[in-house]
Amino acid sequence: xxxxxxxxxxxxxxxxxxxxxxxxxxxxxxxxxxxxxxxxxxxxxxxxxxxxxxxxxxxxxxxxxxxxxxxxxxxxxxxxxxxxxxxxxxxxxxxxxxxxxxxxxxxxxxxxxxxxxxxxxxxxxxxxxxxxxxxxxxxxxxxxxxxxxxxxxxxxxxxxxxxxxxxxxxxxxxxxxxxxxxxxxxxxxxxxxxxxxxxxxxxxxxxxxxxxxxxxxxxxxxxxxxxxxxxxxxxxxxxxxxxxxxxxxxxxxxxxxxxxxxxxxxxxxxxxxxxxxxxxxxxxxxxxxxxxxxxxxxxxxxxxxxxxxxxxxxxxxx
Length: 318
Description:
By secondary structure, this protein is an alpha/beta fold. The chain has one domain (about 35-305): Zn peptidases (Aminopeptidase, 3-Layer(aba) Sandwich). It contains 8 helices and 10 strands. It has helices spanning about 40-55, 60-75, 135-150, 175-180, 185-190, 215-220, 240-245, 280-300, and strands at about 15-25, 80-90, 95-105, 115-120, 160-165, 190-200, 205-210, 230, 250-255, 300-310. A hairpin with a 2-residue loop joins strand 2 (about 80-90) and strand 3. Helix 1 crosses helix 3, helix 1 (about 40-55) packs across helix 8 (about 280-300) and helix 3 (about 135-150) crosses helix 8 (about 280-300). Mean pLDDT is about 90; it is low at about 1-30 and about 315-318.
C-alpha cells in the first residue's frame, strides 16, 4: 500500500476589518436661517392626494407604484436629488417588489447626514373583514409632514445633508427601512446625525416621542419639543427601529389618543381623510420643524478615521 502522506496547508487570510472612529472637528460659526411656518393646509392636501386620490397602497401594489411616482415628482419639483430604491418583500408567501423614495439635499462637507422619514404604504385589505383601507392617518399623515418639511427646507442652507425617505413596506416587517439602512456604507452610518420618523400623526390630543434604545432616549430628550410623553415603544413598531438597530439614534413622532394609540380607525377602511384632525398635524409639524431646526443649528462637523486591521486565520488540513 502506498504510504499515507499528511500535507499541512497554512492559509494566510488578511481580512479588512473596517473600524470608523468618529471624532468632532472644529465647529464653524454659522448664521442659520429660520424656515417659514409649517403650513397645515398644504400638508392636509398631500394627505388627501395619497389617501383619497390614490387610495390603498400596499407594498408591491399598483397603488404603491403610483404613490412612489407622485412622491418622487413632489420632491424633484422642490429641487431635491431623487431616486427610487426597489427592495424585495414577502407577503402571504408571495414575492413582491416595494419602493423607497429617497430625496436628498447636500449640506456642508463633514457634517454627516440627518434623516427624516415616514412610510407611505398601507396594509392590504382582506375580503370579508374590516381590515385595510386608504390609510389617511396610517400613514398619509406622516408623509404629509415629511413633504411639508421638504418644502420648508428646499432652499435654505443646510449643515448636515438632509435625506428624506418615504418608505414602502413598513407594514411588511419594516422591509423598506431595513433595506435602506442595510445599503448604507459603514462610514455613513457612523457619521449619521440622527433620524426623525413620523407615523400616525393625524389623530390624537397628545404628542408622544417614542424611542427604541438608551441612546435613542438621550437623543429624543435633547430635542426642544413640547411632548406629552417620551417613552419606549412597547408594542408595535415603525421605521425608526431600523435605524436604531444599526446604531443611528432615532425617534418616532406620533399623536396619541388614550385607548387608541394610532387612532380609532387604525388599519380599517374608515381610516379616511375626513377623520384627520388639523390640530394634530399642525402640532406634529411644528414640533418636527423645531426638532429639525435644533439638529441643524447644533450640528458640528465630524471626521471618520478608517483603520484596516489585519486578521490572520490559520487552517490546517490533514
